[in-house]
Amino acid sequence: MYKAIITVRLKPSVLDPQGTAVKGSLHSLGYSDVEEVRIGKTMELWLNTADRVEAGKRVDAMCRQLLANPVIEDYEYRLEEGS
Amino acid sequence: MYKAIITVRLKPSVLDPQGTAVKGSLHSLGYSDVEEVRIGKTMELWLNTADRVEAGKRVDAMCRQLLANPVIEDYEYRLEEGS
């Protein structure tokens, strides 16, 4: 069993209206030292496989096929064993 | 300047319908070894402050006040300097 922790972020060149809205809310609450906010997704997947290399390949394929939009998003992942 | 990387996840006891939907989609694509999927948020904040301890306190307060819902979500964060 492997756990994959995947982080999907908008590419730096892509506008992030959700992040801008959160920044505005933080400023309204008095946190005026917040200069920028970017929001992404984190996904935890539990994979029923014993082969680490195979698990990594499959997670990478899942990111490309479904979990991230490669046009506007970057992704990265790491694997943890047996949790 | 500090960068805070915040991860907000649903508590383990809280149902995650979005994760269940993604798991279903992955199974449809042939990734039947995916046992569970949990989806959370990751936020990157740039803070215009020079004091690491103060930055940590402010990020923690922001999480409690706005960025996470403490009833159903857990949060964690780490700080990186000068990026």
From TrEMBL, chains A, B:
Gene coding for it: purS
Annotated pathway: Purine metabolism; IMP biosynthesis via de novo pathway; 5-amino-1-(5-phospho-D-ribosyl)imidazole from N(2)-formyl-N(1)-(5-phospho-D-ribosyl)glycinamide: step 1/2
GO molecular function, one term: phosphoribosylformylglycinamidine synthase activity
Catalytic activity: N(2)-formyl-N(1)-(5-phospho-beta-D-ribosyl)glycinamide + L-glutamine + ATP + H2O = 2-formamido-N(1)-(5-O-phospho-beta-D-ribosyl)acetamidine + L-glutamate + ADP + phosphate + H(+)
Subunit note: Part of the FGAM synthase complex composed of 1 PurL, 1 PurQ and 2 PurS subunits.
Keyword vocabulary terms for this entry: ATP-binding, Cytoplasm, Ligase, Nucleotide-binding, Purine biosynthesis
Listed name of the protein: Phosphoribosylformylglycinamidine synthase subunit PurS
Gene Ontology BP, a term: 'de novo' IMP biosynthetic process
Entry function: Part of the phosphoribosylformylglycinamidine synthase complex involved in the purines biosynthetic pathway. Catalyzes the ATP-dependent conversion of formylglycinamide ribonucleotide (FGAR) and glutamine to yield formylglycinamidine ribonucleotide (FGAM) and glutamate. The FGAM synthase complex is composed of three subunits. PurQ produces an ammonia molecule by converting glutamine to glutamate. PurL transfers the ammonia molecule to FGAR to form FGAM in an ATP-dependent manner.
EC number: 6.3.5.3
Gene Ontology CC annotations of this record: cytoplasm
Keyword Ribosomal protein: no
Cross-referenced Pfam families: PurS (PF02700)
Subcellular localization(s) per the UniProt record: Cytoplasm
Organism: Kroppenstedtia eburnea
Keyword Transmembrane helix assigned: no
Record family assignment: Belongs to the PurS family.
